[in-house]
Amino acid sequence: MQKWAEKVIYTPKEDIDKYCVDNVVWQTFRRKLKGIPTDQKLIRLKEWLDQWDYSYAALIQVSNYINALKRGGQLDVEGNVVR
After folding, report:
1. Per-residue confidence (pLDDT) for residue 62, from 0 to 100
2. How many domains, the chain?
3. Residue 1 included in any domain
């Protein structure tokens, strides 16, 4: 996958803490993404959304991760894979 085309939602700090930082299942999944190519991360993130039926928690988790990829330069502002 060369572009993240899914919706990225606003992620309030308190929801990031609740659904990302304090969620053991998400943290385990997130650590498994480390070291794999960005295009593969996007595929796995889409699978995560599917697995959790696009729940609010999954949307917060994935949106926060996508924004981190953008801040880190792996994705451009349009969601295209840069590196």
Report:
1. 98
2. 1
3. no
Q: Which amino acid is at 3?
A: K
What 3-state class would DSSP assign to 57? helix
Give me the pLDDT at residue 46, please.
98
Q: Could you state, in chain order, the average pLDDT of each consecutive group of 10 residues for the chain (83 residues)?
A: 96 96 97 97 98 98 97 96 94
CA 3 from chain centre, in angstroms, equals 13
What is the C-alpha to C-alpha distance for residues 71 and 65, in angstroms, rounded to an integer? 10
Residue range(s) defining the domain that contains residue 57? 13-71
The token duo for 39 is: 């295009």
Whose structure tokens read 């572009």?
Answer: 3
